Request: fold
Amino acid sequence: MANKLYEESAIQAIANSIRAKNGSSDTYTVAEMAAAIDEIPTGGTVYEEIWSSQGLTYTLTSDGTLKISATNDVFIGHPDTIRNIIYCIKKIDATDTHIQGTAQDEGFMRFIDDAIPAKSLTIQFDFGSSFYYIRNNAFRNAPIASFTIPSTVRFIDALAFSGSKLTAITIPSNVERLGQEAFKNCTALASVDIAQSQNNYAISSSTFEGCTALASVSIVNAATEIGSSAFKNCEALTSITLPSTLDRIDTYAFQNCTALQSVDISSVTYVGNYAFQNCEALTSIDFSSLEEVEYEAFYGCNNLIETVDTPNVLTIPDTLTTTHRDTFCLRSGQTAHLTNVVIGTGLTATTEWMFGRQTALQSVTFKGVMTSIDSLTFTQCTQQGLTINFPNMTEAEVQALSGYSSKWGATNASIICSDT
Reply:
């Protein structure tokens, strides 16, 4: 086989030549491809070399398994390397033999036709102990259904597997970095297991965003942060196991995870904007260490009715000191189910629409001494029978709060104080 890197136009000419011989055939046999590559003139224009000093061999067997091995290679370093191998396989009829070559055979790898439906492949690696790095875009949109990340891998870069056909993945314990959008839009990915590890890397922004088949996730490494949009739009996600080291959940992290039923974030101190917005199946949560919640963090969670240790009561922990608007507000038209709320001693001020449209509320208790209750805290909570309790404040102290006359939006509520 040729060992030069030819420009794509030259390879396309060879592909057209094969088509001319075979009519409109969309499949090249092994023999035809080998012959076509051998016909490429030795003086052709060459590409910049991709794997200049790194040895890579690949074998495609008739059962659809792609075997890749390397002698001195330590990373997959260019988005075109593996992808081009995989794309060219879409053109191969390998029923009678296997194909062997090196990554230098760019002529072979440039038989690309995106109009041909992708096959699902099994990929096997034999890279040895030196292999540690999967670079950005390495398997982006690749038609691979099964893949085992070698235990030696330490770094997985941005978009490394984005859009691929993976159905399950395990992140090995040696990994130190998981890049942004690494598995974004892997719509067949159903389960993720991030192995136990002392490495405290974050789950980066949009790592699993748009993985619409993802049903279960287990993260048992020492992660301290879930990045923005990390699991956004994972609409099949019903359960997730998070590490006890987790401290921060960023903006949009679980937005539109509409099947998520319960979550333990008991070690988390910060929840960002829209983090759990529209998680409509979420009924129970543990956020017992929470200190700050950004705006609309739980907006649209109309079935969130309790914290795990207080059935049928949503208990805001004493550690929470800062909230922002619309924290537990519902969308217009949603059916409300939250009936009882207890707000801990750490929170001394509320924000607008904090419990907006929670029309099933029956009881709200402020355990602390409030210095400010926003006049729109309970906007559209006009139901009869709602009581707002201040067990550690007198009636005079409560009446002195701004917005008391409108009962902070809950116009039909009864106010109960320590001396009433």
